[in-house]
């Protein structure tokens, strides 16, 4: 893990973003009245900046309406204070430059701000990128009568970075995406620092999505999201999530606070997350999920506080084995190995997905154990309320199912930690506090080999 910092230093080699003149979008006729569609004017400013050697494309104060714009080599978008890049509410104004299928089977990829195969690019400043997600949805459903689960994929992401190298996103506020707020795919040498995300109002409003990226640093961000706040994915088997350092985040979500998976075709390795606060989260606090053939290994998560989180932790190795990109093939079951979680203090919500609440769920599938999982200095406060009958509950294997906490319901036979199909589970100072009596045991182990409880 110590080598992660040295990987981060590679990014500093990309400090010089072009040396051309800065360009204001108003030079090309952009109007900040919130009504004029400025897609062409903004793109002309980006193209000019790129063609003259790079620099900054300046957004002055104002509300600049736009459809899809494409960021190019050596260009940084700089949003001044009170500047807003405002997403159009007309779906016809967006392009999908790298279509793929997400975890529930919907084709997605349309976006407001896109970069594909670009180098040395950035998004900076004290301004805002506002996707107007709720307004897009309201307009969309008037014309598209399909169920929401079928039509939502046409709504645009706020930011999509595809196969880029040398990327810096700092200071800005990202809000109200039509779908995922920010998606970084197969990109390298990424810095995300000091940003604020307020993306709620429609389904699938993930905050920061890191998908098959390497040499990444995320620090000091404040995220409020309708879906997973910080999520690592591998929607392709061709590039792992690797060498990632995360610190100092505040995370609030209607789903998970920190999640690795669900889309999990390639590996997740050498990831270190520390010093984060997760609060008012309606699903899991920390969720590690390999279900599509990828490996999760060499993960360290430490110094985490949680407050009002419905289920603090879920670890799942499964065999859903989905494929998300054309031309790729279904894989064999992956692995979940060498994971360390330490120094976590959590107050679980009284109202959980599975009632009565349980603190930690750990499960592989028959023939595929989770291996070498270490939990150290974990304290979780729970509501209690379990009965002796609840302690007899049999948990479904759900081998090929979507790995959600509710998948393992209706109840869990332990109030603290339930583990199944695990080899090399080490528990050091793992404690559970109850607000009321619970007749289920604190720990239940099924097919657990090499258990260490000093």
Automatic annotation (TrEMBL):
GO molecular function, one term: polygalacturonase activity
Species this protein is from: Pedobacter steynii
The keyword Glycoprotein is annotated on this UniProt entry: no
Gene Ontology biological process terms in this record: carbohydrate metabolic process
Key words of the record: Glycosidase, Hydrolase
Lineage of origin: Bacteria, Pseudomonadati, Bacteroidota, Sphingobacteriia, Sphingobacteriales
Domain of life, per lineage: Bacteria
Similarity section: Belongs to the glycosyl hydrolase 28 family.
Any Pfam family: Glyco_hydro_28
Domain Rhamnogalacturonase A/B/Epimerase-like pectate lyase, chain residue ranges per copy: 24-78
Official protein name in the record: Glycosyl hydrolases family 28
